[in-house]
């Protein structure tokens, strides 16, 4: 069923093209997210047209993106977080406001495409075999990395050097967080790249941030949180005034800010 927003039709083909930008656990979820994004886009473009806005694109924007940005800048205003609000957040979240842990890491990557089950099974089996050899003879890690790893770090015997949070994929980071210095991963760690054997050589724990250090980070977080809520409310207001067929835009979130 096609979606119609204030007389403007969104075809099923357009939804399927949009789905590539909305990865999800299922095709149905991806389609729903894509359809909502396109419907909200039409809703905002319709509002911009009614206000008579003329697009003034910034570098990298097309005219539609410029219109949506200009509309939001005009109609979605949020207050700046004050210092007292930031201080309250700081006092309530001290444990999370730290510099990142720094890990010194080596690894061996046995590659496999994410969409090739047979190749991934073979990669996992090979990684398990290498891990067993390393558990028996840990000193062979540089040799086996040079011979078998698909990562450029193989030329340094698998050494990745110092790694901080956000510099590797989440699965790799979770494995590091559960390891002790000098330890091999208990099992191969699966990521979209394949299977990793990880050696954690050292870990430097992060330190608590002072309020002055955390203040700009907290202000950015609070500003973004308020903006997300305000934008979601704005979209719901427009949806309540619009003629929409084929999708229900009544929700607490909007794909534009997810």
Low-confidence stretches: none
Largest sheet: 5 strands, antiparallel
Helix content: 40-55%
Q: Count of helices?
A: 8
**Regarding quaternary structure, how should these chains be classified?**
single chain
Distinctive features:
alpha+beta, single chain, flat, three-stranded antiparallel β-sheet, 8 strands, 258 residues
Model description:
Strand 6 (189-191) and strand 7 form a beta hairpin. Helix 1 crosses helix 2 (27-51) and helix 2 crosses helix 3. The chain is 47% helix and 16% strand. It is α+β, with helices and mostly antiparallel strands and 258 residues long. The chain has eight helices and eight strands. Strands 3, 4, 5, 6 and 7 form a five-stranded antiparallel sheet that branches. A three-stranded antiparallel sheet has the order 2-1-8.
Task: Summarize, please.
The chain is α+β, with helices and mostly antiparallel strands and 258 residues long. The protein has helices at 12-18, 27-51, 63-75, 83-92, 117-136, 141-148, 170-177, 211-241; strands spanning 3-5, 8-10, 102-111, 159-164, 183-184, 189-191, 194-204, 244-245.
